[in-house]
Inverse folding.
């Protein structure tokens, strides 16, 4: 979810402490704690594939929540005089927990029990930066800007819970509609349509093909919008699975496709992505996708380096493995 929504939810939570029982600095701790889990964005410097894999656990887990609470409380405690560390930690931990909850209902893939267990949880009720949720949080910021009003804070939280309940019921209808239309693919993933109460996009994968379906939860209509070959069985794709960028993508994404395409000086690239990162209208031969992960090869098939494409940006790193690649 977007930083504004996270910060606004942190501000809403701390407004419940109208009597300032958590002490000085608690508001700052709760708001900063609500932003803290996204510190893992720094891992994009190691590679977007490293970041996407780490983003599912790490700071976005129960262990990460506790660590963010400790870090945020320590930082705020050094700045705010007279602050009580226990109050800061409780406020910061509550803020960090709200971050995970908000990301979860925004469809993020989260491994809450990392590093003990790798089970994946997702609940795609809202799209990223959904305007309905964002509107509620903007109102919350305006009403709670200068003072803590617990009744307003409670009203905001109840509103978000009610919206989530409605969306949850509609998502259940969308799941049933998708199952009726598409049967039982080996992999199924869904994303809420931005700004819509009734629309979901479903992604399916079989051994050979990846599909995009558009589902209207209210009417129960499901329409297959796209089917493209996955391209995972080619010799080039099979040889690329040991690249660290491909390992990281496959460990964190399921609707994967692979392509081989020419590069400069007679070389070629073998790159992978997830269908969720691709444009809604695709050509089967060359999908238009915002993220690609793979490597560059000599004409004879010898790998040169690891390559990650993020839009127009290209990240390269040596073939040798690093500790960051294996996390």
């Amino acid at each position: 979810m977007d930083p504004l929504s996270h910060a606004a939810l942190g501000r809403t939570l701390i407004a419940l402490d109208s009597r300032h029982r958590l002490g000085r600095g608690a508001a700052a701790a709760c708001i900063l704690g609500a932003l803290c889990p996204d510190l893992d964005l720094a891992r994009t410097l190691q590679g977007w594939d490293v970041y996407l894999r780490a983003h599912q656990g790490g700071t976005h887990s129960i262990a990460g929540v506790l660590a963010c609470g400790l870090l945020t409380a320590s930082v705020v405690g050094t700045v705010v005089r007279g602050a009580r560390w226990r109050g800061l930690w409780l406020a910061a931990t509550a803020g960090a927990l709200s971050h995970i909850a908000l990301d979860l209902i925004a469809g993020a893939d989260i491994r809450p029990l990392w590093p003990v267990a790798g089970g994946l949880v997702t609940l795609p009720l809202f799209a990223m930066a959904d305007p309905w949720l964002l509107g509620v949080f903007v109102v919350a910021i305006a009403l709670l800007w200068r003072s803590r009003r617990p009744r307003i804070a409670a009203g905001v939280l109840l509103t978000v819970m009610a919206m989530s309940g409605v969306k949850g019921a509609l998502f259940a209808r969308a799941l049933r509609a998708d199952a009726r239309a598409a049967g039982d693919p080996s992999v199924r993933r869904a994303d809420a349509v931005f700004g819509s109460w009734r629309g979901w996009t479903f992604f399916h994968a079989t051994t050979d093909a990846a599909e995009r379906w558009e589902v209207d939860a209210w009417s129960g209509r499901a329409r297959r919008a796209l089917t493209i070959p996955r391209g995972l069985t080619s010799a080039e794709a099979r040889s690329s699975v040991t690249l660290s960028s491909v390992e990281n993508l496959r460990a964190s994404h399921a609707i994967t496709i692979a392509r081989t395409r020419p590069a400069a000086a007679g070389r070629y690239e073998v790159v992978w992505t997830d269908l969720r990162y691709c444009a809604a209208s695709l050509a089967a031969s060359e999908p238009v996708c915002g993220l690609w992960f793979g490597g560059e090869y000599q004409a004879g098939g010898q790998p040169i380096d690891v390559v990650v494409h993020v839009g127009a940006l290209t990240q390269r790193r040596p073939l040798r493995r690093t500790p960051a690649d294996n996390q």
User: Anything to note?
Assistant: The beta strands are 187-192, 199-205, 209-216, 222-229, 256-262, 268-274, 291-297, 303-310, 313-317. The chain has nine helices and nine strands.
